[in-house]
Write a structure and sequence with these properties.
This protein has about 325 residues and is an alpha/beta fold. About 40% of the residues lie in helices and about 15% in strands. It has 13 helices and 13 strands. It is globular. Bound molecules: NADP nicotinamide-adenine-dinucleotide phosphate (NAP).
Amino acid sequence: MRIVVIGGVGHVGTYLVPWLVEAGHEVIVISRGQRQPYQPHAAWRRVQMVVADRVAEDAADVFGRRVRDLKPDVVVDMICFRPESARQLVEALAGQVQHFLHCGTIWVHGPTVQAPTDETQPRRPFGEYGINKAAIEAYLLEQARRGNFPATVLHPGHIVGPGWAPLNPAGHFNPQVFVTLARGEELALPNLGMETVHHVHADDVAQAFCQAISHWSTSVGESFHVVSPAALSLRGYAEAMANWFGQEARLRYLPWEEWRQTVTAEEAQATWDHIAHSPNCSIAKARRLLGYAPRYSSLQAVQEAVAWLLDRRVITI
Ligand SMILES: NC(=O)c1ccc[n+]([C@@H]2O[C@H](COP(=O)([O-])OP(=O)(O)OC[C@H]3O[C@@H](n4cnc5c(N)ncnc54)[C@H](OP(=O)(O)O)[C@@H]3O)[C@@H](O)[C@H]2O)c1
């Protein structure tokens, strides 16, 4: 099939595009041409690259036509963040594509109510990002279920892979937290360290997209969580990473207002965003309907990413 991936050179695209090429598809990637995949792969030589700025072309109302003119059978939209943007694409592509896959986020759920969260639970998103993603999901699934548009929505957790810093056990992205644990130094965690994070390896996200494409009849009109088999508490995550470095974790717990003074404003914001959601999502539906079988646990995914940071001396112990 002829597959257009919008935003295919990032975390997920690095894995997804080679998967699709190797499965025999003709792949076209749209991006601004500013980034390279995190890892080289011979498959990229067989990919048609189209340079375009989706935000600028959305504003000029020409992006949908650009995608339609590429005559895709399947479109994977990795970078849609506004309902108007989704609507433009649907209006341009209705009746023109066999399958449309949107990359969502587990943050459409808002705070966890009943764990593990399944896809049927009500959406209570907060923050502009989660609210917009939930609105896009609702719109696309309604279009699909009314028979107007063959959409599937995949909701990844915190995407991890070699090449960038993973969400750390303090709930933010400063990789020095791993150095603290590796050296056996004390790490402060907010509250009791019992709030949760739910990672997924980028390669497993790519697998889920491929499985959704090859399971058209069970994926159209549906949304799926795409996460590792189990979420982690911050405390359990910190302890496991310290052990991985051959140390016992030395953890200290501080009430939120006190803890946030120990980190930068940016780190505190990232941690707040993560622990206010405290995701813990089920992959039972993706396993059953897509045959999704993640290769990485959360810890395996993080450890591969941290090994990369150490190898490239982004962090040193
Ligand atoms: N990161 C996470 O932990 C996480 C968690 C859950 C869900 N998600 C979802 O994952 C999706 C993002 O996937 P990702 O992490 O693989 O993305 P990413 O690493 O941020 O890569 C974005 C891709 O889009 C291209 N791009 C960015 N802005 C563009 C524009 N204006 N016009 C055209 N191309 C543009 C980039 O290339 P150029 O820069 O060269 O244009 C790159 O190919 C989003 O829908 C997000 O909501 C992410």
